[in-house]
Amino acid sequence: MSTALPSVDQLLYTPREAAEVLRYGRSTVYELMAAGVLKYVKEGRSRRIRRRDLEAYVDSLEPLPN
Question: 2 pLDDT exceeds 60?
Answer without folding.
Answer: no
